[in-house]
C-alpha cells in the first residue's frame, strides 16, 4: 500500500502544477501573433533609413520626436510585458470573465485611434535613458521578440488570466493585442511627424 501512495502524491502534485484551464487556442495564438508581427514590421519600415536629424525633429516644442516615441515604446512595452507575466502568475480568475470592457475586434481600433490624445505618466516620459536611438530601438525589439517567443510557445490559458488597465479589465490575450495596438498608435504618431511641412529631407 505504501508503494502506491508515493506515486499517487507525485501524480497529484504534477496535476495541480499544470494550468487548470485550457491551453491557448490556435486561433487566438494566430490572432495575437498577427498583430505583434504587423505592428513591429510597420515600425521598422517607418524608421528605416531615417537620419539623426529626422529622428530628433519636433514639429513644435510640445510634440515628441520620432526618437522620443521609440523610447516611450521601449519603456511602456517593458511595463506591459511585466503586467502580462504578473497576470499569468496570479492564476485563473474565471469570475472576471463578465468584467471585460471590450470585444476582441475593438482593441486595435480603440488604442490606435489618434483622435483621442492621452498624456502619459511621468515614468514613461522619454528622457534618453537607453542612450542612442539605435540602442533604444534594439532594447524595444528585444522586448517585443521576448513577447513573441512567449506567445509562440506558451500553453497558458490567456483567456482565463486578467489585467486591469486604466479603462477597465482585459484578458491576457487582449492585453497582448493592446500592446501591439499601443505600438501602432505611436508609429502613426511618427508618421504624423514625418508629414510636417518642415520635416528634414535627410
UniProtKB/TrEMBL annotation:
<protein>
    <submittedName>
        <fullName>DinB family protein</fullName>
    </submittedName>
</protein>
<dbReference type="InterPro" id="IPR034660">
    <property type="entry name" value="DinB/YfiT-like"/>
</dbReference>
<dbReference type="Pfam" id="PF12867">
    <property type="entry name" value="DinB_2"/>
</dbReference>
<dbReference type="InterPro" id="IPR024775">
    <property type="entry name" value="DinB-like"/>
</dbReference>
<feature type="domain" description="DinB-like">
    <location>
        <begin position="36"/>
        <end position="190"/>
    </location>
</feature>
